[in-house]
Amino acid sequence: MQTLMLAQAQQIIAGALAHSRTAGYKPMGIVVLDEAGHLKAFAREDGASMFRFEVAQAKAWGAVGMGVSSRLLGQRAKDNPNFFVSLAATAGGKFLPQTGAVLIRNADGETLGAVGASGGTGEEDEAICIAGVVSAGLVAG
What we know:
Blueprint lengths: L5 H18 L5 E6 L4 E6 L7 H15 L3 H10 L1 H10 L10 E5 L5 E8 L3 H14 L3 E2 L1
Antiparallel strand pairs: 1-2, 1-4, 3-4, 3-5
Helix pairs in contact: 1-5, 3-4
C-alpha cells in the first residue's frame, strides 16, 4: 500500500489555500492526516480564528476513521444521532461529522488519509479540500 508522503500533504495544503484565496474565502485552517489518523501537516492562515485546527482535525479524523467524507457522516448523523453522539464522546472530542473533510485516495482507490478544513462554510471547507487533493495528483473521496 502506498503511504501519504509529506510532500504530498504539503501540496494538498498549498492547493487548498490557493483555491481558498482565489475564491475569496475567510482565513482557513487545514489539516492533513495519514491513513491511521496521525497528523501529517497543518496550516493556519494569518487571521484564522480560534479552534480552526481542532475543528479541521476532528472533521478529517472522523472521515479517515469511518472511511467516508465528513459530508456523508453528517448525513448519517441525522438518521442516527445517538450513535454519533456516543461516537464523538468515545473519541474524546476528536470526531466531528460536519461537512468539510474528504478522504485522500490514490489512483487505485486506496485510502491514504484525509484532509479537513475549517474557516468557511462547510461547502467552502469541502471545496478547498477537494482542490488540494486534486492539486497533489490524488483522488478526493
